[in-house]
Amino acid sequence: MAPQPNFPPNVFQGCLLEQTNARAVAARIIDGRAIAAELRADLSTRSSALCKAGIHPRLQIVLVGEDDASRAYVRNLQKSGDRVGIQVTIDELAENSMAADVRAHLERAGADPAVHGVMLQQPLPAHLSIRSIADAIPAHKDVDGTHPTNQGHLAFGQGTEFVPATPAAVMLLLERSPAWPLAGRRAVMIGRSVVVGLPVATLLLAHDATVTVLHKESADLQPYVRLAEVVVVATGVPGLIDGSMIAPGSTIVDVGTTLVNGALKGDVDFDSAVKVAGAITPVPGGVGPVTNVALLRNVLKAASATRV
Asked: CATH topology for 54-156?
């Protein structure tokens, strides 16, 4: 058994007592599709205003390889962009492209005044390292927050031009949950990837939550998950978290998306968790739709800085 954390006297016992006395209620569904629709309306208004000023927002995505999930994602981004007046173009590179080739395409897009946002779609083919490429994305057009400078600003908690789209979506969903504001709340981030886990943990801290980060090398998920008022899961392990593991009334944000027998599944076992949680995001229909909108918001932010 993993050792218990060294809580101040009575804190651990008090949390358990609070959970025992909590009444199980049906969770509120945090509807990502509805939130995305609300945000898209604002994007359409802002995009129209930019077009009238002679600025036509454009996102260029560099896509390397034949990953089916990546292709589906960028095609969906194209459709989302069309709906709000943002042109999304895709620069497709062969699977065997070398880092120098990818960097050249990113730099070319960065130098194009008609392009306001530049994004490198991940995951990359196994032979490519994001660390050897990310700095080729111009920081002022880095709408998915991949450039080391933008990641550094995010880690420092200030001066960030662009928050990465998926972490931004998590925060947009939390803003509309019963857990908001986050100040003083116990939060757990399960997953520590540089794409989702670490940025989300940083953003939670920036809102004064008390944050525990768990990952595949953690000895145990408990008691941390059961003590948490907010749980964000991004591991790619379907059904990792179920209703027996969470606190009654907690807010659960499921970032996971894995295709299982033809159906999209999250990292949370929704059917059991929805009976215990106070609020929960579904998969599909939770984080995904808001991620697209968060990215396009960053494109408009970059376009708004343009001078005709």
From this structure: Rossmann fold (3.40.50)
